[in-house]
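Subject: sequence -> structure tokens, single chain

Hey, anyone have a minute? Need the predicted structure for the following. Not urgent.
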Amino acid sequence: MSNEAQTIDCDQHGKSIGAIVCRHLVNNYGHPLGFVENNDDPNNLQAWCYACEYFFQQQENMTDEFKQFCDIAIVCTDCYTDIKSRHSLSALFGANA
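Reply:
Had a minute. Here:
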């Protein structure tokens, strides 16, 4: 893979660098699911929910089963920030977490 950032065209935010998240984080607007960042490079943002983290730990690798469970989605960096604020520990336990 290239180290060059990939851009996407988000319906809500326009052109932006793409970020990868699990589909659970994208589709859930109810209770926070937790937010585990897998890369802090601003040109390669990646995260998944606590259920995906647990599944990944059980599989001990990025298996086909894990990939199917995670069902990645590509979102813009603004959507990534919104998703992070909805699902992070501070969303789970309040601003002081």
